[in-house]
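Review form for a predicted model. The reviewer records the input and the model, then writes brief findings.
Reviewer: anonymous (R2)
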Amino acid sequence: MRDTDLLQMALGLTPPWQVSESNFDPQHKRLDIHIDFPRGSTFSCPECGMEKVKAYDTEQKTWRHLNFFQHETYLSARVPRIQCNKCGIRLVNLPWARPGSGFTLMFEAMIMTLAKAMPVKTIASFVNEHDTRLWRILHHYVDDALNNADYSDVTEVGVDETSSKRGHNYVSLFVDLEVPRVLFATEGKDASTVARFKQNLVEHQGKPDNIKEVCCDMSPAFISGVEKQFPDAQLTFDKFHIMKIINEAVDEVRRQEQKDRPELARTRYIWLKNPANLKLSQVGTLADLTVKKLNLKTSRAYHIRLNFQELFSQPPHMAEAYLKKWFYWATHSRLEPIKKAAYTIKRHWNGVLRWFHSNINNGILEGINSLIQAAKAKARGYRTTRNLITMVYLIGGKLNFRLPT
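Model under review:
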């Protein structure tokens, strides 16, 4: 069997395409494979599909392919242009590369696979290509997959933001809580992000009236955006964000009291963890600090926090009565941070209690967010917000990229 026949089989070429020759340069560690077609071959129009159209002329093009062992491999071919009666002069589509790309489909599939686990800059070094060229591959496949996404069955949505850069730069994420998957990612964290999500939902066969439940934090921007854009949806405030408000109040009490009570130094995480998650040494410290005779304000705030946490284990028909008792206790605690947190809960009363009917939270979204931040840390950040958003879809979008195998 000739070398050209073996390469043709390995590349999966079908008539009229055939390997005409190959050149191996061991000094530059490069393999060049030349592809051609016989004189008189016919092709299909890439737009209307008209068959058996002869070549009008050709353009010489080259594509980077998967490495042959440790050697870089390139495919070169005369790409025919045809003159279609309906569409005019068109460059034909090729079975091994997409239009406008300098890489073969198999090379791009490898990049898409590696990008889920490795920083793009690391991949670029590994394949000896500039990372900007690889980002173009990622943008193309993500954009193409998003164009074909169908959101017609979406009914429950979670909303949260993630930091894109240091400072006050954010990307808002909208997640399908049933699948789960990232539906939409956009720059900013104001009410306009919800309006952009609604438009994107409609563009992907989704119906705003089908959105029955939305889970978010207590951000006024998200709340106003959801109420305006999805008036039929019920708002559930994420219980993890609610607990964050209570935890911050407890920590504020500790920081204020620590000025006069040195025994509270280096005990921050003892008051923020659940008892079951404490180390053995922390259990002993907590027991010493919660003795009644010490009369620590932080200890009182801690017990108010634990009692609020018990809200989520109440039967639905008893939840509101329990929350009312807790609210009375918190607002009469003479602990200003705790009182402030309690009044925040009061302002969002219905959304807090909605959890007992919807049973949704942003735990899924927090999981996706942690994957995004881990990827961002490995990549040491992204140069542009578009790159970050592309990575968000790649990691959490569950998109069908229709990659060759």
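Findings: Residues 110-238+361-405 form a domain with the Nucleotidyltransferase; domain 5 fold (CATH 3.30.420.10).
Further findings: The first helix runs from residue 3 to 11.
Recommendation: see findings above.
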